[in-house]
Amino acid sequence: xxxxxxxxxxxxxxxxxxxxxxxxxxxxxxxxxxxxxxxxxxxxxxxxxxxxxxxxxxxxxxxxxxxxxxxxxxxxxxxxxxxxxxxxxxxxxxxxxxxxxxxxxxxxxxxxxxxxxxxxxxxxxxxxxxxxxxxxxxxxxxxxxxxxxxxxxxxxxxxxxxxxxxxxxxxxxxxxxxxxxxxxxxxxxxxxxxxxxxxxxxxxxxxxxxxxxxxxxxxxxxxxxxxxxxxxxxxxxxxxxxxxxxxxxxxxxxxxxxxxxxxxxxxxxxxxxxxxxxxxxxxxxxxxxxxxxxxxxxxxxxx
Length: 303
Known about the structure:
Layout: H1 3-30, H2 42-55, H3 76-100, E1 109-110, E2 116-117, E3 129-130, E4 137-138, H4 169-179, H5 185-191, E5 220-227, E6 230-237, E7 241-249, E8 254-263, E9 266-271, H6 272-276, E10 283-291, E11 294-302
Antiparallel strand pairs: 1-4, 2-3, 5-6, 6-9, 7-8, 7-10, 10-11
């Protein structure tokens, strides 16, 4: 019952979760097959595996694949051409595969990189590290959205000989988080360290599922709130009813009941750590609310 115990528990839980979840990954992979010609290449192999996991119902929200060798200090012309051809053909096969199972509209792909390139040749038929770079998104969910931002002026650099970007990469990240993952503004602010971002028109449209009668779902709204060192569950209800809030780990094991009482109209805030009454390790959890015959759940980060 100490900080050392917390850290050890976290590591053990992570290891046990890995062993357990490997079986879930295997089952999802084996539950589907590829329906596109991916050809050869590392990126194609990675995307073909991701397609099978998606179509197999794994449910993971984010997958990360990689395509290296873009650090083109020399021979950039031919190497870059080959890399972009690999990217293009692999993405094409990926979405053809997803479309065969009706998943293409539900998947968005985005490129990321930790550095860009300089706007001039370095003398070795290549370019050196720079601060600006293009970012590409793929998928039918973009609704035909094309170029966003302005083409950079190749003759105007900053004081460090970098291109001056017309879009902040944090604006792209924030726009995807808001309009694709449908995250609350407060969560995005926390992720981006309160960067005052511009919501870019990427063609994405965050919509909730259509339901026949929304009245039962409007009885209660809820969200995690991260305030100072506290992790809170904020609830707002329009009626009086009995409510029960239960906390689960990421494997779905019930850990503790956070609240089991009557809730009256208005806003309620539940301090997760204080209400739990047990030591909670840092990490991802899930809370479940039962209220007036309806069930609600959401992931929450204990930190």
